[in-house]
Amino acid sequence: MNPLLEIFSQGEEIIRGQITDTNATWLSQHSVQLGFNVVRHTAVGDKLADLVLLLQEIAQRADCCLCTGGLGPTTDDLTAEAVAKAFNLPLLFDDTAYAQIKQFFAHRGRAMPESNSKQAWLPTGAERLDNDMGTAPGFAVKFQRCWFAFMPGVPSEMQHMYLAKILPSLTGRFQLHPARLITLKTIGMGESAIQECIAGVTIPHDVQLGFRAAEDVQVKLLFPFAYSELMLRQLVADIAECLAACVYAIDGLGEESGDLVATLDKLMLSGGHRLAVLETASQGLLAAKCLGMEWLLSASYIQSLPRVATQFSLVPMTDDIIAFAKIIARHLQQQQGADFALVQLYAEQRDILCDKNQSIIVHTVLLAGDMYQHETHSIGGTLQRKQKQAALMSLDVLRRYFLTRKPNTSTQSQ
Amino acid sequence: MNPLLEIFSQGEEIIRGQITDTNATWLSQHSVQLGFNVVRHTAVGDKLADLVLLLQEIAQRADCCLCTGGLGPTTDDLTAEAVAKAFNLPLLFDDTAYAQIKQFFAHRGRAMPESNSKQAWLPTGAERLDNDMGTAPGFAVKFQRCWFAFMPGVPSEMQHMYLAKILPSLTGRFQLHPARLITLKTIGMGESAIQECIAGVTIPHDVQLGFRAAEDVQVKLLFPFAYSELMLRQLVADIAECLAACVYAIDGLGEESGDLVATLDKLMLSGGHRLAVLETASQGLLAAKCLGMEWLLSASYIQSLPRVATQFSLVPMTDDIIAFAKIIARHLQQQQGADFALVQLYAEQRDILCDKNQSIIVHTVLLAGDMYQHETHSIGGTLQRKQKQAALMSLDVLRRYFLTRKPNTSTQSQ
Predict the structure, then answer these.
(1) SUPFAM superfamilies of this UniProt entry (chains A, B) (predicted)?
(2) For residue A159, what are the domain limits?
(3) Mean pLDDT along residues A111-136
(4) Pick from B14, B28, B30: which is nearest to A41 by CB?
(5) A221 and A162 co-located in one domain
(6) Which of left, alpha, beta for A313 (phi over 0: left; psi -120 to 50: alpha)?
(7) What ipTM describes this predicted complex?
């Protein structure tokens, strides 16, 4: 059984919503990788009574607690005082800490403000954790079942202290058996559809299956420590087979794969391809997602189908929008000197685009060399959702083209 | 005394650090503005026992609790079950919720997966909160001293449900004495520059001054409940005067102003203008930011300066990039039949664009009718930061054009 770990953040700015608690995210990631069972995040403000109560609760509940914030020089920085009170460990003046704080200011040619001397008072018996990046020393104490480490709230100072001072303590103090997370990233199927699709695969009782739907849908498998590599790879392969072409990347088996654009980047670079894009429903977002990709030569957003036609001196063909998109793709390819041209069109009027209760039909045509490939998607929801999904679906046509180019796979040419 | 409010988030992804809990931030901001005393954020994963215990704790501690996550169709979505267990309110099948979920899929031309029927089971006596944006209905229950509202974890669905369904309940149920927040939104000055600029304005001791730097820089003034309207407006006016043309919107004085694009929308619509854009450094993001704006006829991203020249059958003029941008703006205006044309160019090579330690010089030319206006900005930082800042700075040239068009202001024509 992995030790239970909690994250505790002190700060009015956090609980008032002025800043987002990214420290909790960072510490959680590191703790999970290390093999802790992270069970709770809590953030409270600068009320002493709340802090004291929370520390006492955690001391009974968790084996380890990583704490950030409240170590500063001002009166609303209450962590050391709260620890002293909660665990009955009166504050003691730490000469070494005081000398370090003085030195911090001396190095910068400044006198130490009197308020900073407060930071040299640490709970009785606490282990001081030196801060190489700022004035606030951290400290660690064990109380009841829980080992607490207190760090500054400034992310750069916190991260440095964690890596330099706390990580070595954690691996020394705890017997850790890290689980292994495998993530299958998919495009083209909803969360429920994926669940049904993989229902035939038996998930062993000690493997946790989870889903995360953002723009793409991710299938997550959490394997216990020292799980058989062979069985792990077989299970991942079984699920990947069910989801087939929807899987665009798998994380956790070796090097991390990144998002869809990172996948496309590898494919485009390996073939030395160059792409020109015409986008409509995704309104610039397709280009924006490909930030910094050298293979994207140009991407034009044009507001309406009639305007697209005018731009290419054509008569719009609303009865056969795919044929129309193919003609435009050919023009675009030649005009931009690209071997690949991607054209995204939809025929609906503006009021349908803006209506969250109505869907638009988005057609994407890819011209790759002299081969056409196309896909059609119905996209509903708000204007923002339509924009995001249109960008993703059209980019995915490009990825799927490369799948058809694999050996032993027939090529779809139309 | 303002009522105590807690935020509770359910999600393994949050406590494992796979995503950051931005819902807690968003809900805290709104709750504080409304007059709640936000005292704690807690996030737990999908362990039923943890959830049950936490709900029981909160029911004794807070007057109100806003909860997100765990309402999905999958087996790891446990919120309704946890509420049923914690408060002894067995789950009941809600016919209306079921009909709504079915309709959600019907609207999208898909059959409802069987797993989604789980979302129609709500705790006995709970008030159903309809979800206009997704399949998961929310619900609200009162237990002991605390009124709980449960919302989906997907931020867009959560925000919509909060604004449409929960906000009206909160203002009806609680006696709130909100502080009043005024936000001056600026573009074109850094945080330190703004601080120096307004240093001469006396801020009364009971008014809180704060800053938030994201893409723009926001100056925030928090006034206590029932503060004199006259004195409030005078202080805001004094600060706005110091910051002059950098202020693009002020929130909190009447109707909300939204972001820069919302400000532009009003200006463009009132003049019946139409805009064509050529963007380079912002790579599609300028267009993406103007999502749904009818006045944006087209926006082309072109990768490099030589490619821009080729596209317009011109020879690039790297020695006078502004003159070159003006020529292109004229072409674009005619080609697209727009009265306004905005051209963004930079001359640096790709390696400088991608290097976070180097800056690029971004030139933006606006051709409005037959009048040119231009601005030049040095933009540093990561590729992502350069993209965002370039989009913002170029759009801001459009806003500043309208400032010069105000009566009694001389027009800059070059």
Answers:
(1) Molybdenum cofactor biosynthesis proteins (SSF53218)
(2) 4-173
(3) 86
(4) B14
(5) no
(6) left
(7) 0.77
